[in-house]
Specification:
A hairpin with an 8-residue loop joins strand 2 and strand 3. 46% of the residues lie in helices and 10% in strands. It is built from 11 helices and 6 strands. By secondary structure, the protein is of the alpha+beta class. The chain starts with a helix and ends in a 5-residue tail after the last helix. The chain folds into 2 domains: 152 residues, no CATH class; 64 residues, no CATH class. The strands form 2 sheets. The chain has a 4-stranded antiparallel beta sheet with strand order 1-4-2-3. It is elongated, with a radius of gyration of 21 Å.
C-alpha cells in the first residue's frame, strides 16, 4: 500500500521521498493501533497508550469518573520512569515507547530527553482514550505515546500498583490469591484489610513482599491508618507465613 502511494507521484527528490515514506509508515502504524484500541479487548492488546494507564489509575472507584489530581500524579510517575530509564532502548537516547503523530519529521520512538519538558509531556499525555471514537483520521490524529504490554505489566509491578482487573496483566505476571478470612493479630489483620482495599479482585501481583508492603502506604493513608505495616504482617495476610 505504501509503495503504491509512493510510486503514484514521482515528483519527489530523494529527501522528500524518504520523508514521505516515513510519514506513510507512521500513518499506517497509527491507524492500526487506533483501530485495535477501539475494537479489541484489553487482554488481547499488545500496545497500551500511556493516557489509558493514567485514566485507569485515576478512576474513582465505582464511578465512571477520573480524578484529575490522581491522573496528574500518575502522569508524573510515568515521566519519572522514562527519565529513570525504565524503558531504555538499546539505542542511545531512545526508549521502547512508541511516539505517534502525523508530522513527517517526527520519530517513531520516544526519545529520553523529550520527557524533560514537563509542559510538553503533559500535552502529549492529556489525550483521553474515552474520546477516541470522535477522532477522524488522518486529519485529526492526536499525539500519543504507547507502551508494550510487557513493559506496562512490569511498570505496574515495579511501582506496586494494581492494574484494572479487565486488563488481565496480573494473570500474565502471576499472582498471590488473597485469603478471604483475616489472620489473627492486629498488624496482620490491618495488612489484610489494606490488601483487599488495594486489590479488590483478591489477586495480588507476584513481586517481592517488600514491594507489596511499600505499595500499601497510600492505601493505608486513604484508610486513615497512621501506623505502618511490616513485611511479616503482609506475609501472614497472604497466608505465606503462619
Amino acid at each position: 500500500m505504501i509503495r503504491k502511494e509512493l510510486t503514484a507521484d514521482t515528483n519527489f527528490d530523494e529527501e522528500e521521498l524518504q520523508l514521505r515514506r516515513l510519514e506513510l509508515r507512521r500513518k499506517s502504524i497509527y491507524s492500526q493501533l487506533m483501530a485495535v484500541a477501539q475494537r479489541t479487548s484489553m487482554e488481547r492488546r499488545s500496545w497500551i497508550c500511556l493516557s489509558e494507564i493514567a485514566d485507569a489509575c485515576a478512576q474513582v472507584q465505582g464511578q465512571p469518573k477520573i480524578d484529575r489530581e490522581s491522573r496528574a500524579r500518575v502522569i508524573e510517575w510515568l515521566r519519572a520512569s522514562v527519565l529513570g530509564k525504565e524503558f531504555d532502548s538499546s539505542r542511545e537516547g531512545q526508549t521502547r515507547l512508541a511516539f505517534l503523530q502525523t508530522s513527517p519529521h517526527a520519530k517513531l520512538r520516544f526519545e529520553l530527553a523529550w520527557a524533560e519538558n514537563v509542559d510538553q509531556w503533559k500535552a502529549w499525555t492529556e489525550f483521553l482514550p474515552a474520546s477516541w471514537n470522535s477522532w477522524k483520521p488522518p486529519q485529526q490524529w492526536p499525539v500519543t505515546i504507547w507502551m508494550r504490554r510487557d513493559d506496562c505489566r512490569t511498570w505496574f509491578s515495579n511501582h506496586a500498583l494494581a492494574p484494572p482487573a479487565s486488563w488481565h496483566l496480573i494473570e500474565d505476571l502471576g499472582s498471590y490469591k488473597l485469603p478471604k478470612d483475616a489472620p489473627s493479630g492486629k498488624q496482620a489483620a490491618r495488612a489484610h484489610r489494606a490488601l483487599w482495599q488495594k486489590y479488590p479482585s483478591g489477586r495480588v501481583p507476584k513481586m517481592s513482599i517488600q514491594k507489596i508492603t511499600n505499595g500499601l502506604a497510600p492505601t493505608l493513608r486513604h484508610m486513615r491508618e497512621s501506623e505502618d505495616i511490616t513485611t511479616d504482617s503482609v506475609k501472614r495476610a497472604l497466608a505465606l507465613k503462619r
